[in-house]
Amino acid sequence: MNDAVLSTTLPRPFDARRAVNLAVTSWFVIAALGHALFLFYILAVFYPPIAQSGLSGLQSLEHLPAGFREGDTLGNLAAVAHVLLAAIVIGGGPLQLIPAVRKHAPTFHRWLGRSYLMAAVIGSVGGLYMIWTRHSLGNLWSQVTISIDGVLILVFAFQALRNVLAGRIVAHRRWAMRLFMAASAVWFLRVALMGWATLTGGWGIDWETFTGPFVYALGVGQYLVPLAMLEWYFICKRREAGPLVQAAFVSTMVLLTVFMAIGIFAATMGMWLPRI
Ligand code: HEM
């Protein structure tokens, strides 16, 4: 019996490497869909009032307590830039990670990359300004944890740019993926919050003050969990990675992807659609 016949008749062993790729691709497709829904919300909720009334356009948005302050032009500019540029970060991030786009439309990838970096950096600096000059939801813990995210975005953006300018494409891709995780932390937060509320009825969340054990965990979890999973993925891609490490990664990814899908549905139905 030759090898070809053998390979079709014998049961195949678990191909951990393929399973890792499949788990990550499924996660990415669902995450990209969730980003598209958040992008739709951003375009529908923030762009029309700002186009109509300029800086004071945010005044009418009740769910944005740190959105507008009478007389604080700098802060209002930061807030308007923040929500407008969020469209580039949320819409552009997934597109930058699609290999076919990078391969077949390199000029588009380069221009979107520059716009994404600029939007993420300005959005973070503006966010840091807003979080420390205006009272928003949550407490000091929320201010500190989201500020750490702001600093991570700046560091990762710098590293992604530095490496691509030096022609180190493998390192550039890694830093760009870290940047995506940190810049999308605000999206992970909303999805995890709503997913958790759906599954547990809101255990550990005080909706009035936006405090509570789960909210505190989410403060750091919004970027630490995605970043940790990304580093684990990098380990799984190494040639010497063992099948056990890969199988554990796949199982964790499956659970997180199911949780994320529930969260996307809950955030769309309970948070984004009702405000449009
Ligand atoms: C670069 C990635 C980021 C994106 C895409 C983003 C996106 C957004 C969006 C869409 C909103 C409107 C809220 C909503 O309707 O759900 C918002 C609000 C806000 N963001 Fe960000 N954000 C980012 C990073 C940050 C960072 C790093 C900080 C702070 C250090 C921050 C601070 C704020 C604040 C203070 C508000 C106003 C919340 C309020 O009115 O209570 N953001 N952001």
In short:
With 276 residues, the chain is mainly alpha-helical.
Number of strands: 0
Percent of residues in helices: over 70%
- Given the C-alpha coordinates, what overall shape results? globular
The description of the largest β-sheet is: none
- Helix-strand string: HHHHHHHHHHH
Q: Compute the number of helices.
A: 11
Distance between the termini: 64 Å
Strand content: under 5%
Cofactors and ligands present?
protoporphyrin IX containing FE
What's the number of domains? 1
Computed structural class: mainly alpha
Mean pLDDT level: 94
Walkthrough of the structure:
- This protein is an all-alpha fold and 276 residues long.
- The protein has 11 helices and no strands.
- It has helices at residues 3-9, 16-45, 47-53, 73-97, 99-104, 106-133, 140-165, 169-183, 185-200, 213-237, 243-275.
- Helix 6 (106-133) packs antiparallel against helix 7 (140-165), helix 7 (140-165) runs antiparallel to helix 8 and helix 9 (185-200) crosses helix 10 (213-237).
- It is globular and about 65 Å long.
- Residues 42, 64-67, 82-83, 86, 89-90, 120, 123-124, 127-128, 130-131, 136-137, 146-147, 149-150, 153, 183, 186 line the site of protoporphyrin IX containing FE.
